[in-house]
Amino acid sequence: MDTGNTAWVLISTALVLFMTPGLAFFYGGMVRAKHMLGMLMQNFFAMGLLSVIWVLVAFSLAFGDAGNGGVIGNLDHIGFTDVGGEVLGGDGFFGFLTIPFVLFAAYQMTFAIITPALITGATADRLKFGAYAVFIAVWLVAVYAPVAHWVFGGGWLAEMGALDFAGGAVVHINAGAAALAVVLVLGRRKGWPDEAMPPHSLPWTLIGTGILWFGWAGFNAGSALGADGIAAQAILNTFVAAAAAMLGWLLAERLKDGHATTLGGASGAVAGLVAITPCAGFVGSMPAILIGFAAGVVCFLALGLKRMFRFDDSLDVIAVHLVGGLVGSLLLGLFADAKVNPAVPDISNEGLLTGGGIDLLFDQAVASFATLAYSFVASFIIAKVIDATMGLRITSDEEDRGMDLSLHAENAYAYGDFG
Amino acid sequence: MKLITAIVKPFKADEVKEALKEAGVQGMTVTEVQGFGRQGGHTEVYRGAEYTVDFVPKIRIEVVADVTDAERIADVIVSAARTGKIGDGKVWITDVDRVLRIRTGERDNDAV
Questions:
Q1: Cα dihedral B52/B55/B59/B64 (nearest 10)
Q2: What angle do the packed helices A36-53 and A101-118 form, to 10 degrees?
Q3: Is A192 within 8 Å of A186 (Cβ atoms)?
Q4: pLDDT at A419 exceeding the cut of 50
Q5: Could you give the dihedral angle defined by the CA atoms of residues A216, A210, A201 and A193, in that order, rounded to the nearest 10 degrees?
Q6: Domain tally, chain B
Q7: How far apart are CA A362 and CA A82, in angstroms?
Q8: A135 touches A383 (CB < 8 A)
Q9: Which site in A218, A305, A412, B15 is 20 to 30 Å from B31, CA atoms measured?
C-alpha cells in the first residue's frame, strides 16, 4: 500500500462528495424562491439514496469482472463482497491500484452520487419527489453502472481505446443526455417560456460554483488514483480550464447580450470544469486553456438550443453538461499527449495535434455518441414507465404553490412572516 | 387633519427624513414599495434570456399633520427628494377624518 496515494484519494473522496451540496446551491440559487428546498432536497437526497444502492449492487455492476471488454460487470461484489481494506495487487484489472480497494469503491461512489444529481437542474420545479427517487435509483443501476463499466471498468469503450480521465462521457454526456430525455417526457414548466422565471438568489449560485470548483480538484486530480505528477497536471488543468472558460463565456455574452453577468461567470467556470474532466490527466497546460475557452464560448452559444427546439431544460444542464462533455471528450482526440501521461500510448493513440493521427478522435466520437445514445434511450424509457405508473409530475396546483410547501411542508425563507 | 403620502427614490429616503425632522415633523411611517410610473421598469438578462421587470422599488413616506402644516411639509419633501431626473416620485395630500393615539386615547390634533 502506498500511504501517500491513499491519503490523496481519501481526501479526494471527501472533496467529490462535497460537490453535491455545492451543486445543490448552484442550482438552488437559480430556481424561484418557492422551489428552493425542493431543489436542495433532491440533491441532498441523492447522497442518501445512491450511497446505499452503490454498496448494495451498483458498484458490482460497474466494476465487477473489470477488464472484460463487455457491456456490464457482474454480481461478485454485491454488498461490497470482497471489497475491503487491502490492496488487490496481482495481474488483474485492478492490479495497478496502490490504494485499498474499498477506497477506490468509495471514491467511485461519490461520482455515482453526483451524476444523477446533475439531472435535477433540467427537471427543476416540476418533478415529483417520489418519482425522482425511483428514477435515480433505477438510472444508477440501469444506466450509470453499465456506462461506468464501459469506460472506467475496462468495458468495450476502454478496450477500443477511448479515453476518459474523470468522466466526460460517464458523468457529463451521460447525465446531459438523460436530462434531455427526462424533460421531453416531463414537459415544460407551467408558463415557460412566456413567463419570467429569473433566479431567486445568485449569491447562492456563486457559493455553489465555488464549492464545485474546489471539489473538482478531487474529481479530476483524484482520478489519477495517486499523488503524482499526473495528479499535479490534472489539478492545474482543472483550474486553468475553468478560468479560461469563464473568460470565454463572459466575452461571448458581453458581445452578444451587452453585459458580463455573475451568472455567466459562474456558468462559464462550470462549463470549463465539465470540458476538462475527460482531459485532465491527459493534456498539457496550454491545451487545457484552449479546451476551457472553447467550452465557455460553445456552451454559451448552446443556451439557444432550448429556445430553438422548445424543450424546457430549466437550468441548462444540456448546454453545460451534455455540450461541455462533448467538447471535452472530442477535443481530447486532438490533444491527448504521452509527454503528460506516459500511459496514453499503451492504452490508446495520442491526439491528432500531438502526433497520433485521427484514430483517437474517432474513438472519442464513438464513445461520446454511444454514451449519448444509450443514456438518452434508456432514460427516456425509464421516465416513460414511471410517468405511466406513478406519474412524474407534480400537479398544476402544487407547481403554483411551489415544491417547498407542496412536497415538503417547509419554507426556505420565513422572514416574510410576522415574528 | 391631512395625510401626506410621498413616493420617493430609495436613496433619497434619508435626506427626506432629515429635512422633515428639521421642519418639526414628529413622526412618520416608511414602507418599501414597488410600482411604476413614467420611469417604467428595467430589463434583466439571465443566461441570454431577457426579462422585463415593470415594478421599480421605491420608498413610501406617510405623515399625518395639521391642515395648516400640510402644504409646507409637502414642499419640504419635494425639495429634499428632487434630483431632476425621471423617477423622482410623487407627493399627494388627502383628508383624514379622525386620529387617535393608542396609549392615551387623545384625539385629532392632540394625537398628531
A1: 170
A2: 150
A3: no
A4: no
A5: -40
A6: 1
A7: 37
A8: yes
A9: A412
Domain housing B24: 2-98
Q: What is the pTM of this model?
A: 0.90
Task: Give ipTM to 2 decimals.
Answer: 0.79
C-alpha cell at A177: 443526455
Number of Cβ pairs closer than 8 Å across A and B?
28
CATH architecture of A3-408: Orthogonal Bundle (1.10)
In a domain, B106, yes or no: no
Instruction: Give the confidence band of A16 by pLDDT, cuts at 50, 70, 90.
Output: very high
Domain boundaries, chain A: 3-408
CATH number where B21 lies: 3.30.70.120
For residue A19, with 0-12 CB atoms within 10 Å meaning exposed, 13-18 middle and 19 or more buried, which class applies?
A: buried
* Residue among B46, B52, B53 minimizing CB distance to A263: B46
pLDDT above 80: residue A414: no
- Rounded to 5°, the CA angle A383-A389-A392 comes to 45
CB contact under 8 A, A316 and B52: no
In a domain, B104, yes or no: no
Each residue's pLDDT tens digit, A275-328? 999 999 999 999 999 999 999 999 999 999 999 999 999 999 999 999 999 999
* Mean pLDDT computed over every residue of chain B: 93
What single string gives the DSSP state of each residue in A124-141? Answer: TTTB-HHHHHHHHHHHII
Q: Which residue of B has its CA nearest to A198?
A: B46
d(CA A316, CA A209) in angstroms, rounded, equals 15
Strand residues in B1-112 grouped as ranges (E): 2-8, 29-35, 42-46, 49-53, 56-65, 89-95
The 10 Å Cβ neighbour count of residue B29 is: 10
Using DSSP's 3-state secondary structure scheme, residue B11 falls into helix
| A300–B48 C-beta distance less than 8 A | yes
Q: Which three cell numbers stand for residue A315?
A: 437550468
B51 vs A267: CB contact, 8 Å cut-off? no
Provide the pairing of β-strand B56-65 with B2-8. Answer: antiparallel
B103 domain residue, yes or no = no
Interchain contact, B47 vs A264, CB within 8 Å: yes
The rounded distance, in Å, linking the Cα atoms of B96 and A115 is: 64
DSSP string, A311-340: ---TT-HIIIIIHHHHHHHHHHHHH--TTT
Half-sphere exposure (Cβ direction) of A400: Cα atoms closer than 13 Å? 3
